[in-house]
Structures are given as C-alpha cells and as structure tokens.
Amino acid sequence: MTRILRVGHDPRAIEIAHETLSIGGLVVFPTDTVYGVGASVDRPDGVANLYVAKGRPLQRAIPVLVSGRDAIDRLTGTTDEVSLKLIEHFWPGPLTVVLPAADWLPYEIVRDTGAVGLRMPDHPVALELIERCGGAVATTSANRSGEPEARTAEEALDVLGGNVDLILDGGRTPGGVPSTVVQVDETGHCRILRIGAISESRIEHVLGSSRISPE
Known about the structure:
Number of strands: 10
Distance between the termini: 45 Å
Strand content: 15-25%
CATH superfamily: DHBP synthase
CATH class: Alpha Beta
C-alpha cells in the first residue's frame, strides 16, 4: 500500500522518504516542473523497479536529479564547456543536460547510452530530499509512460498507487511542463533532444544560434 505524507505536516517526511529510497523503495515527490518518481542511484534494484512502475521501455535511460553542481564530477566522465555554460545559466531550473556517464553508475540508469541526463530542480522539497540522499536521485516523471505528467500528489497516486512505496505531497507543482533536454556533441554543438519548459530561443540566447545543431 502506498503511503502519503504531506510535507510541512509531518516533520519526518523527508527523513522517511530518504529511508525508503535507501532500502530500494520508490518515492514520488514534487519538483519545479512535474511530480517525479525516484530511486536511489546506489540501488540498481530500485531503479529497475522504476521501469516496472511506469511501464517504461527498457531501452530508455533514467535521468538523475542533483542538489548542486558538485554532483557533476561524481556522476559524469568528462564535462564540456558548452554544457557547463548551459548549467551555469539554467540551473537550478528545468534543463536536463545529457553528459557522459561515470563508470560506476548502474546499467539500470545508463542502459546502453553511455550517458546520463542531469538536472538540478528549483524546488525546496526536491532539493532537500536529494541532498539527504547524497546529492543525487534517479528520477523520472511520476506517470505511466506516454501518459500526461502528474502535477499533484493525487494525480500521481491515481496512476502509480500500489507501484510506489511513498508519495510526498508538496502541493501542486508550479511548472507543469517537463524539462527541456539537451546534449552537446563532439563538435561543441547543442542538440535539443526534447523541447520543454525552456525554449530553443532561450538556449540560442545563451549559446548563439551557430551553436545549435540543425537537427
């Protein structure tokens, strides 16, 4: 049975969420975009359960939410200047940057991509939980794959209830649109893999139009 805790009403809510993740459980929590469902990066069994809970295709890697830029060195191999410029400008916020994955990251997160998508959310509940978990939580949107994202704890419960261990109710999310996803190629050009809360024009404003891949 899925447990629901209201943040601000239960003083141990974040602690309980951390404990749940540390034993391989799944936790739903609010972010600045939509509700996410997370698993510990140190528990491949928990990450594997994310695919089951969401009905997510196995070939799709799982992004990782971080609580600060200091997590980048731990989670990635090399970091290019263009990606760092985007991170500096848009974090915390709704931009996921795909970078080469560190060797230690579980296959369940990276799959066959050799990469990991990183984002620092701009939401106090998410940041507190992620920080409590060592600065990183494998997280994807709290919905069944291909269906609308959840903006409230109730919406997340409707679609994932019974498949997750805990839901942190932090109220309605302020954004409602998933993050934009980008990846910088070997030539230093930024490829926009998914348009979300950050428009292509905003990215062009930071990098210049010549740095945007025509794809």
